[in-house]
Amino acid sequence: MMQKTPHSFIALLLPALILLSGCTLEFANTRAAREISTPLPPKGDLYAGWRVFQDKCANCHGMAATGGNRAPDLLPKIKEMNPRQFAGIVLKRYDLGSGAARGSQDPSTLEKSIDEIMRRSEAPVEMPAWQSEPAVNAHILDLYAYLSARSEGKLGVERPQKK
Q1: Contacts of residue 77, Cβ cutoff 8 Å, sequence gap at least 6
Q2: Which of 74, 137, 141, 143 gives 65 a disulfide partner, CB atoms 3.0 to 4.6 angstroms apart?
């Protein structure tokens, strides 16, 4: 009968220790996984988003984005949207209820139709698209950041600090 030497025991034990230590390193480093899984706040300037909202959106959605008699409360809706979905709705959704304006690609016709809707007392069938409006188009991520901060309770109705 052959007796095992200490070297053969170490030779068997060493691979087992290496495998086990590799597993413990994976489980011990959970902080990085938590950091990766935490969603990043939306990129954008809250002040610029607030300004665009007050200038272009508050007339229908209310000064606090909680809705009014012309448009719905945006705060619960924004929680369900990512920036791409938000931009798609704000910039591209279009139905003015007027066949002439709906089929027109002339910016002056679209602009006149949007102005007309904004002066009406009743709400339009759909929100007008803001794709051709430079202030909204250029600041769409700022607008999303502002509304996201409002919907998450990180920002009140007051004006955010200017950067």
Answers
A1: none
A2: 74
| Residue 156 covered by a domain | no
CA distance 1 to 47: 83
Residue 103's pLDDT is 46
Of 102, 5, 37, 152, nearest to 144 by C-alpha is: 152
Crossing angle, helix 140-151 and helix 83-92, to 10 degrees?
120
CA distance 60 to 159: 18
Domain enclosing residue 123, as ranges: 46-151
Q: Provide the token pair at 129.
A: 């698209």
- 25, 59: one domain: no
- Please provide residue 25's backbone torsions phi and psi, each rounded to the nearest 5 degrees: -65, -40
pLDDT single digits (tens) 44-80: 899 999 999 999 899 889 999 998 877 889 999 999 9
Position 41 scores a pLDDT of: 61
Is this model's pTM higher than 0.70 or not?
A: no
Q: What is the CA radius of gyration of the chain?
A: 28
147 with 41: CB under 8 angstroms? no
CB 25 within 8 A of CB 33: no
